[in-house]
Amino acid sequence: MSRHKKAIILSSGGIDSTTAMAMAKSEGYEIYSLSFFYGQRHSLELDAARKVAVMLGAKEHLVINIDLRAFGGSALTDDAEVPKGRNETDMQRCIPVTYVPARNTIFLSYALAWAEVLDVSDIFIGVTAVDYSGYPDCRPEYIEAFETMANLATKAAVEGKTRVKITTPLIAMSKADIIRRGIELGVDYRITHSCYDPSPDGKACGRCDSCLLRKKGFTGAGIPDPTIYVA
């Protein structure tokens, strides 16, 4: 495999996208990191994404500004309260209010556009269908559908010059397995950020779905959680 193969990695600065990026790097890809400021209340994640890009030697890290607050419809982009203290049964019962309408479709569309410009055929996204909050745009069937669409919608694919591949290396992994794999690859999870509702000084709330899944992952992996929580 060529040392010069390139991949675009969607990066939120969290555990999953960071591990996916580390996995892509371990496979010899030149990394192009793509993040978004979309009006999210937890925009501290972008600081983490920048640190991750540096840590993993990204060729470029691009942050796109999209104001999804114009639509609202999510606790992450409007004034709705972020759910706290839910158990796994609650998380799996229905799609939570932290779901951002069409977010991964929007993000992947931007990645697809950048991929055409960079002549890249590989796009990595750190979605998982095991330990997650039930978002519909994290499921394997969604990713498969988007990949099919991508190969019908892009000039390079239609002309037969390339075939877009949406790679989801974590899709069947638990949070504990993801963390173990990241540690094997030398990931420093201290610089990552997961919390949906951090304190003004950047501490994780410890009670939102994302914090609870993060805690579960470190406990399951048998690795000390380096996160600084409010309490």
The biggest sheet, with number of strands, parallel, antiparallel or mixed sense and barrel status, is: 5 strands, parallel
Q: Which regions are unreliable across 5 or more consecutive residues at pLDDT < 50?
A: none
- Tell me how many strands there are: 5
Q: Provide the domain count.
A: 1
**How is the largest sheet built, in terms of strand order?**
3-2-1-4-5
The computed structural class is alpha/beta
Ends: how far apart? 47 Å
The CATH topology is given as Rossmann fold
What's the assembly state of these chains? single chain
CATH architecture group name: 3-Layer(aba) Sandwich
Instruction: Give the % helix.
Output: 25-40%
How much of the polypeptide forms β-strand, as a percent range? 5-15%
CATH class call: Alpha Beta
The average pLDDT value, as a whole number, equals: 93
Q: N-to-C SSE series?
A: EHEHEHHEHHEHH
Say which CATH homologous superfamily is assigned.
HUPs
What would you note in describing this structure?
The structure is a single chain. The chain is an alpha/beta fold and 231 residues long. The protein has a single domain, classed as Rossmann fold. Helices cover 37% and strands 11% of the residues. It has helices at residues 15-26, 45-55, 88-93, 103-118, 140-153, 155-158, 175-184, 209-221; strands at residues 6-10, 30-37, 60-65, 122-124, 165-167. α1 links the parallel β1 and β2. α1 (15-26) packs across α7 and α7 crosses α8 (209-221). The mean pLDDT is 93.
